[in-house]
Write a structure and sequence with these properties.
Radius of gyration: 17 Å
Distance between the termini: 14 Å
Order of helices and strands: EHHEEHEH
Structural class: alpha+beta
Strand order of the largest sheet: 2-3-1-4
Strand content: 25-35%
Number of strands: 4
Oligomer: single chain
Amino acid sequence: MPTETAAPPVTAFMLVKTTPEWLAMTPQERVNAFTTEVVPAIKAKTTGVRSRFYDTEFYSTRVTDVWVWEADDHAAYQLLIDALRETPFWDRYFEIVDLLVGAENGYARTYGVEAVTTITT
């Protein structure tokens, strides 16, 4: 599999832990809070951002959820973080435990080699 020459998107693994305020809400209140307080801020301030969400609370006590954010570039990622910090998402509904940011197969691009660590069976 040849490596791409275009700049890879930024991928961030956002490890979060739910707060007592978030857990005190009913599931419908959580959906309403996220769709009315968080999503509009993201959509108003960013372009080129995508996310996936993973529940982990049944496997971890330190991190309850993992958000995988992909951004077209570092500027889009920065706008995403700025947008989230201006909402109750950041440190009110969720404690941000860690941010792990990287570029998929960055080593392959750097050295001009095949991305042998990406495996499909």
